[in-house]
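dumping this here before i forget
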Amino acid sequence: MSTPSAAPRAVLRPLTVFGLWTIPTLLSTLETVMFARLSGREITVVVAFLSEAPQWYGWALLTPVIVALGDRYPLRWPPRPRAAVVHAAASLSCSLLIAMADAAVNMVLRPSRSGFLASTRDWFLGGLPATTVVYFAIVVLSYAIVNAARLRERETQLREAQLAALRMQLQPHFLFNSLNAIMALVRDRETEQAVRALSLLGDVLRSTVNGADAPTTTLRQELDFVARYLSIEQVRFGDRLQVRVDVPDELLSTPVPTFLLQPFVENALKHGILRERGGNALAIAARDGDGMLTLTVRDDGRGLSGEPSGGVGIANAGARLQHLYGAAASLSVRNAFPGVEVEIRIPRQ
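structure:
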C-alpha cells in the first residue's frame, strides 16, 4: 500500500477541497438561474444555489474518502478484481448519497408529489452516468496529484544527494591541501607555526562539520569560514599574503551556497599569488544589483596561461550553482591584468 505524501495531503486540505468544489457549484447555480429565466420560471440565486449545492458540496465531503480508497485499492493495469469491485461499489454508494442529498433539499425548495424514496430513485438513476464520471475523475486526479508530488520529492532528494556528494568531494580536497600546508611547516621545523595552524585547522573543520548538511549559509558565515582558512595560510606565508574584503554590511545576511568562496580563494593561493616572490594581494568583494548578488575573488598573480581549469574547485562550484539556481546563476573566470578574477552571480534570495 502506498502512502500519500505531504504535498497531496496539503492540496486536499478541507478549505482547498471546498474551495475547488465551489467553482462548479457557482457555475451550476448560474446555469440554473439562466435556464429558469429562459423558460419563463424565475428563480432566485439563493434558491438556485441551495438546490445545486448538495451534490457539489456532497462531493467535497466525499473527496477525502474517495482519495483514501484510491490509495488503498489502486486502479492499475491489468485491473485487479478486488480493486474494481471496491471502486464500483464505492461509486454506486457515492451516487446514492448524492441522490439522497439532492432529493432531501429539493423536497424543501421544490416540493412535488413524489415521496423521498421515489425522488431519490429519480435523482440516482438520472444522475448515475454523471456521478460515475465524477467519482473516477476524482480518483484519477488524486493519482495525478500524488504522482506529481512524489516526482517532486524524488527530484528534491536527488538534488540533495548530488549536492551532498559535491560537498563530500570538496571537503577532502580542502583538507588534504590544508594538511600539505601544515606538513610544509613541520618539514621546515616551524613548530610554533605548525601548532597554531593545526589549531586553526581544527576550527575550520568544526565549521565544515557544522555546515556539512546545509546547502546554503549566509555570506557572513561563508566569509568567516574563508577567514579561518586564510589564517592557516597566513601562518605559513606571513606578510607575503595580503587579504582585503569589501562586503557591505547589508549583504552579510544574504544566503549563498555553503563552501562557495573557499575553492576560488584556494586556487588563487595555489596557482596564482603565492607562486610569486613579492608581496601579493587577494581581494574578496560583493555587490548587489538587479536582484543579483555578485561575488568576486581577485588576485594579482601571474594570471591564466590558457583556458581556466581549476580542477575540483571550479567544476564543483559550477555544478552546485547549477543544482541550486539553474540558469539564473553564472560563474566566470578570466584574466584581470594582473592576476585572475572569479565572478559569481546568484539570485539574491
